[in-house]
Amino acid sequence: MEEKISLAIVRSYFKKLENNLAVDVAIVGAGPSGLVAARDLALAGLKVAVFESKLAPGGGTWGGGMLMNEVVVQNDGAEILHEFGITTQSIDCEYHTVDSVEMASGLIFGARKAGAVIFNAVKVEDIVIHDGIVCGVVINSNPVLHMGLHVDPIVIMARAVLDGTGHPSEIISKAVNKAGIKIDSPTGGILGEKPMWMEDGERTTVENTKRLYPGLYASGMAANNVQGGFRMGPIFGGMFKSGRKVAKIIAEDLRIKK
Fold first, then answer.
1. Are strands 48-52 and 117-120 parallel, antiparallel or unpaired?
2. For a tag site, which of 3, 17, 132, 165 has the least CB within 10 Å?
3. What are the tens digits of pLDDT across the range 136-195?
4. Helix 32-43 and helix 220-227, axial crossing angle in degrees, nearest 10
5. Cα 224 from chain centroid?
């Protein structure tokens, strides 16, 4: 029995990995914008793999505001959550509250059921660039990197790479600091996140969501960090709309490439 169970896990996992060594879209970070983008792209018929360094996908949503597991969304953000089957509670004509645990788990389930594949505890440590185009990610086991072990990674090839890593914009940082590329920002580099201003941060999160370099995109707080937008804290409508916007941009770009 023990052998049968172990064999089933090994075979199933490596089949999943093998099937995703080349994808249409590699999304780095399973936060709110990344998960919305993953679902939309998968529903559009694209092959999507999401790589999350933490054991639990969902990004920084689980704890709500200061470990009070409720968050706030605007009406248009609530509409996107309702597509996932996530419950919201209206508090006035503009805003809803959402149980952050239901939100995180609902976003994960929605992306997975749409067809996106999620690899958790997997760290993207580098990108692949061929002839001036970002065309893949370099992955390793996050525990391996956490322990500082010298273990070589493997590569996932992708037609588009989305940085959904949140505040650090880790993948864009690799592109700018390691590859030395100039991205679509006022300086060609990363401006850095500004302090809290919820209203403007919500606006610019969507505004700053774009293709930054051939094959390379940013959404959510990663996009805001690149363009110097304000942080917004536990209000999430802009994150969902950012994920939806970048999915449309990527889907259109990949249709043009065909």
1. parallel
2. 3
3. 999 999 999 999 999 999 999 999 999 999 999 999 999 999 999 999 999 999 999 999
4. 120
5. 13
